[in-house]
Write a structure and sequence with these properties.
Number of strands: 24
Distance between the termini: 66 Å
Bound molecules: adenosine monophosphate
Number of helices: 17
Amino acid sequence: MGNHLFDLVRSRMPAPDAPFALLDDGRRYSYADMVDVSARFANALVALGVQPGDRVAVQVEKSIEALMLYLGAVRAGAIFLPLNTAYTPAEIEYFLGDAQPAVFVCDPAKANALKPYADNAGAKLETLGVWRSPDVSAGSLSDKALAASTAFADIARGPDDLAAILYTSGTTGRSKGAMLSHDNLASNALALVDYWRFTRDDVLLHALPIFHTHGLFVATNCVLFSGASMILLPKFDPDQVFKHLPQATCMMGVPTFYVRLLQDARLTKDATKHMRLFVSGSAPLLAETHREWRERTGHAILERYGMTETNMNTSNPYEGERVAGTVGFPLPGVSARVVDPETGRGLAADEIGMIEVKGPNVFKGYWHNPEKTAAEFKPDGFFITGDLGKIDAAGYVHIVGRGKDLIITGGYNVYPKEVETEIDEMPGVIESAVIGCPHPDFGEGVTAVVVVKPGATLTAASIAQTLEQRLAKFKLPKQVFIVDDLPRNTMGKVQKNLLREQYKDIYSTKGKAGA
Ligand code: AMP
């Protein structure tokens, strides 16, 4: 048995001197470098005592070396466990305690603060920073890798062995570790390369974080599995994007990237005419953004839908119509269905219910949490995504929001997306979030939080008035708030849990008195 994931990477590799990554500091990694440096990291991990199946937890800044550590961990038969760079020491304590990694790799600047937590969890602490020059150490693991051999016999791992654990973002309760096998990652990468027509000629502009499934697996694995190359940016920065865009053929982003680029005068048909593909995901792309992008650039953004637990599930077509406001069709090999969340009955086209998926992309369960795993899978193997949506008559999947965001007011179900869409279409509105807040009479009161364009004359009252002509009474917001912006996480998702917390008292006597 070989190493399932890395063998596939090798089998699809172009010539050794073909480019793999172009870095913002001018360095260039060839495919041969990728194999050599990932071998060095694999050797360094094995020398630290990492055994097959051990977790290697990592909280470091984005860098090519961090990607080499991912591949080195896979080649060493370990389980790569990336952690959001925004997590605080207290949060890291939870993840290390839960995952019990053999090694924890952190930024050199955080080593002192995090050492006690690594010690408590029985993990060896190593550091990895961003490479600046050959004369300056980029951390203890970087030094060990530099000193290690480029020869490494990949540790045998089968399709069902774990390659990674990614913790969910945990907006409801504690984050859970999603266990992803070699084949979960490989099968999804192969499906995406094919569906999105990746070839060795592609150059991906990579501006996403690499602690999340989007930047780590969708973006990086699409490059690796097609022998393409990437321009690896440390983070999303419009100046850097416009600087490197002429060399790229495709870009992947969260919706906020596209919104930000649309605000930039440098975004023109000319600047993007050589591009082959723009992909969006991780959060809903407003239909308005899709339309504006198409008008400005001539390109239809390809929106897809996935999650930490499932990799990518659906995608708009490469050829054929990319329908704004939808996430397209189930990927080849993936089955998707919409069921009544109460009874489990399958629903007809256009009926809204719980989206469930099944396929080689779907994870192996939650780490050390068999009860939660059992609760999220149906007996026939379908995973309950927690997303509400519908499949229309043409087969396109539409997402209307997370199940937990559904508002139940006076016994009626209100899907926030329906109200948000009405608000977003009003001239002068940038975006909106509709949430349910505790209400003494209705259980929950529909509440709209709206961002308007500078200089727009809209008021909370005028928005409420317009909605009255368009929506049934029970769907109407009982209060509308105009704000400067919506709270978002690093992946661009609106954090409705924070909004619900902020507005939780508005319908209580206490809240009314204060309002
Ligand atoms: P994460 O596990 O952080 O990747 O979050 C997964 C969740 O993001 C999904 O369950 C959806 O709620 C949401 N999501 C991902 N892609 C899309 C999309 N294209 N449109 C709407 N929601 C999306």
